[in-house]
Amino acid sequence: MGTFNRMHLIRQVDLLTLRLFLSAVEEKQIGLAAIRENVSASTATKRIHDLEHIAGLELLERTPRGVVPTPAGTVLARHVRKIFGSLEDIRSEIAAFTEGMQGDLTVASAQSIIAPFLARELGEFGRQYPKVRLIVHEIENREIVQEVARGEADLGLFAAAHELDLTGVDVTPYRRDRIVVALPRDHRLADRLSVTFEELLPENVIAVGPMVNAFRAAARRLGREFEPGQSVRTGGVALSLVRAGLGVTAQPESLVGREFLDGIAVVELAEPWAERKVHLATAAGRRPGPACRALMEQLLDRPADDPS
Q1: What residue stretches are annotated with the HTH lysR-type domain (predicted)?
Q2: What's the pLDDT band for 137 if we cut at 50, 70, 90?
Q3: Does 267 lie in the same domain as 184?
Q4: Which has the closest alpha carbon to 53: 125, 1, 121?
């Protein structure tokens, strides 16, 4: 067979081969080892033969009744058991991070972020960490930042705005989307590729609660005043009113569900502030807890265009 080559053993032997060898020792037949490890008998025979070639030693003695380990095979079997024992220890210790993570995790966010982005992420997180109790506060931007700064929420997700005071929080960019304009299909602006906010001001604008302040600030920059024709709490209600021909609205594109597209036209809002930047907020200078860190890693690992 040759001489034992430690480096060849380390570099060329995989865990399945070691498992097959150990199963052959324990079952005393290569065929039974193959069944136990769910491979063909020929695959098992070849892998064990290759293992002996790499080791440079005969590891199994073939007999009419099956196989028995040689003295070298007995030594290797003992160490292989230790290897798999260590692997099980690794699995158990890593599982403890997942299975053992528990406690409360409070997340503060706006409805316009929860619906298109956060809900599915929280669902996935809840399935992965079932012992963590998720508490969701649906509030508006300013309150989100304040809750995180006061320690009332572990994590906040908010849309960036010039007027927001970010004192007391550390901020991490998360996602981007755009504010778009939804109009009835027969509206005079429906065939346009884009419209400005100034062009919308004469219209009956249906404002979703969080957008009212943004519209008022945009109007002030134009030297105008803004008062919504109707003010509603959710984007879905606003889109329903638009589809009924009662006005126009502007809201994040991610909230314009496919179920509304048959009855409305969607055009770009040609304003610098129409790009919405969503950030994560944690308490300034404070290391987030394990559950919060795990959720942040999940959120930040997801590509921005991932539909899942």
Answers
A1: 18-70
A2: very high
A3: yes
A4: 1
Q: Please check whether residues 88 and 113 belong to one and the same domain.
A: no
Task: Identify the band that residue 9 occupies on the pLDDT scale cut at 50, 70 and 90.
Answer: low
261 and 131 inside one domain: no
Q: Which pLDDT score is estimated for 307?
A: 41
Give the span between the Cα atoms of 45 and 247, in whole angstroms: 76
| 26-85 per-position pLDDT tens digit | 999 999 999 988 889 899 999 999 898 888 889 999 998 899 999 999 999 998 988 887
Of 124, 100, 159, the closest CA to residue 298 belongs to 124
Cα(118)–Cα(109) distance, integer angstroms:
9
Distance of CA 206 to the CA centre of its chain: 33
Task: Kindly state whether residue 39 falls inside one of the protein's structural domains.
Answer: yes
CA dist 215 and 196 (Å) reads: 12
Q: Max alpha carbon distance in the chain (Å)?
A: 98
CA distance 13 to 115: 49
Q: From residue 33, how far is each of 16, 20, 61 by CA, in Å?
A: 11, 6, 15
Mapping DSSP to helix (H, G, I), strand (E, B) and coil, where does residue 160 land? coil
Task: Give CA–CA dist 35/14, Å, rounded.
Answer: 18
